[in-house]
Amino acid sequence: MIVVLVVLALAAGLVLARGPMRSASLDLRAAARTMAADMRTTRATAIETDRALLFTLDLVQGDYGVKGGTRHALPRGISAAAPDAPARQATVLFRADGSASGGRLGLSERDHTIAIDTDWLTGAVTVRDAEAP
Known about the structure:
This protein is an alpha+beta fold. The chain has one domain (23-129): minor pseudopilin epsh fold, CATH 3.55.40. The protein has two helices and eight strands, in the order ααββββββββ. It has a four-stranded antiparallel sheet. Strand 6 and strand 7 (112-118) form a beta hairpin. The model has no long low-confidence stretch (mean pLDDT 90).
């Protein structure tokens, strides 16, 4: 009985010493979904308040949010990109009628990239793997 307990204690010690299980891909997907949800909330608020709102992504600082509002930092190790944006900041304007300026934002971790697309006509925000067609 004591031998079994010692073996279980050693196995538990090895598992705990390894640290928390973490997946870079899952962290990236969670960050993309969170940012997309914040963009959808920005669109809904623009419609509700009947005024245009500017969603910004700071490519240098790695934070995002509504201009003049609360900022959210990207998790460590995740970088932001926007192919059509200036070097420092990407923006998406959500109008009161639900439309948007459109565009693509990207989040990357190592060699995996996720695209967050905004449709200019409907303002719909979608998340997908950037490698997929």
